[in-house]
Design goal:
Length: 343
């Protein structure tokens, strides 16, 4: 088994099944119960939003500091590590019009101060990774914001955080739409372009989510290769997605096994994980699951990843090279499919 990979997920991946059209269908597990699942399911990295760590991201710092320290102890006791902290910049009344790109300077200031606190929280729980999912950095109608000014605002935010802590790294998790009609900086490539406009490009990289790439009409494996080539793939959110519609967060490989195989292949070939990167998941259980069986999407995604690692490693690469040299891609096509089918 390819157990040298380390796996992570966020506590929000064990959830009540509520969606935009219906209320919860399962009771919430307590945070302590969720932590127990990490061990049971073979995960040791925990992804956090700032307010997964602290009960109120607007509370006085002394309270947040104490809560973060308590949480760190809880993680240590269980042998778990924090993978990243992402400021949750999309739920607060101050971020209705966006956080980094709000038209109001006062609201942008709120977002920046909150993000600095997220870094302080990250330091207390032992991670240097800050994730930016720019959920509301876009528009419902194009005329409501200046798109070039928005880019400048994003770079200013990045620079302010890089300056706030000379050790942290910022990982952009790009998504082309949802909740916004259209996002600024919709893809990995866009964000990497902006990284080079910052004061310290070496500390700005990406987290790539499979479903987000698919929503943008892109192949997630190629997106990962693009970031790997630049030394900027610092985390992933593996999942699956049935076409370009709303973000489905389906279990990894559950829609397109071959697409999943190619993600694992590119990660494996380029040494992903060997500098401590986690194989992160961002998956949702189907609304139809009862509470007792509402973590199987995590179990399944991890198992499929590990099985695909075995298939990547057992692929006859010499035969692949022969078929490439002969330019017989039809034969190569069948060869790959037979390998996946197990023939
Ligand atoms: C939503 C995103 C979201 C982020 C998480 C961490 O589409 O995938 O779940 O991954 O908030 O930043
Ligand atoms: Mg995600």
């Amino acid at each position: 088994m390819a157990t040298e990979y380390r796996f992570s997920f966020g506590p929000w991946n064990i959830h009540t099944g509520a969606d935009a059209f219906g209320p919860p269908v399962r009771d919430e597990f307590s945070f302590a119960e969720k932590l127990q699942f990490y061990e049971d399911l073979g995960f040791d990295g925990v992804q956090f939003h700032d307010d997964d760590v602290v009960s109120d991201a607007d509370a006085p710092w002394s309270q947040q500091e104490q809560e973060a320290k308590d949480l760190k102890k809880l993680l240590d006791d269980r042998g778990l590590v924090a993978e990243f902290v992402a400021p949750r910049l999309w739920e607060h009344p101050n971020t209705i019009d966006g956080a980094l790109t709000a038209n109001s300077a006062e609201m942008r200031r709120y977002a920046l101060e909150r993000s600095k606190r997220a870094i302080d929280i990250a330091n207390l729980i032992g991670t240097k990774n800050i994730v930016l999912w720019p959920a509301r950095e876009g528009t419902y109608i194009r005329e409501s914001k200046d798109p070039a000014a928005a880019l400048e605002q994003i770079v200013e935010w990045l620079n302010a955080l890089l300056e706030h802590d000379p050790e942290i790294r910022i990982l952009g998790e790009m998504k082309p739409n949802e909740p916004m009609d259209q996002s600024y900086v919709p893809t990995t490539g866009h964000f990497v372009g902006l990284a080079y406009k910052t004061a310290d490009p070496d500390r700005v990289g990406v987290l790539i989510e499979s479903a987000h790439a698919i929503l943008a009409g892109l192949d997630p494996a190629d997106e990962m290769a693009y970031a790997l080539y630049q030394g900027k793939l610092w985390s992933v959110h593996l999942n699956d997605q049935n076409g370009p519609k709303f973000d489905e967060d389906k279990a990894f490989g559950s829609v397109d096994l071959r697409r999943a195989f190619n993600q694992v292949r590119v990660l494996e070939k380029h040494g992903y994980g060997r500098s401590g990167e986690f194989v992160g998941l961002d998956v949702k259980a189907m609304r139809t699951q009862s509470k007792e069986v509402s973590t199987k999407h995590l179990r399944n995604s991890r198992a499929v990843f590990l099985r695909l690692v075995e298939l990547v490693r057992s692929l006859d690469e010499r035969r692949v090279q022969e078929l490439i040299a002969a330019r017989d891609y039809e034969e190569l096509d069948l060869f790959i499919m037979q390998h996946l089918i197990g023939q």
